[in-house]
Amino acid sequence: MEKRAIDLAKQIIELDLQRDAIFEQLLALLGDRAYEILRHMQNKY
pTM for the complete prediction? Predict the structure, then answer.
């Protein structure tokens, strides 16, 4: 496999882990409403 492809795959994994950590923070702040707020923001963009 190309080094660039491997680097991109690693970046995607790191972003996914970061997303999970950030979403846990959102859940801590908003509880079950976190899903609703996230969907609303996603649909806005």
Answer: 0.77
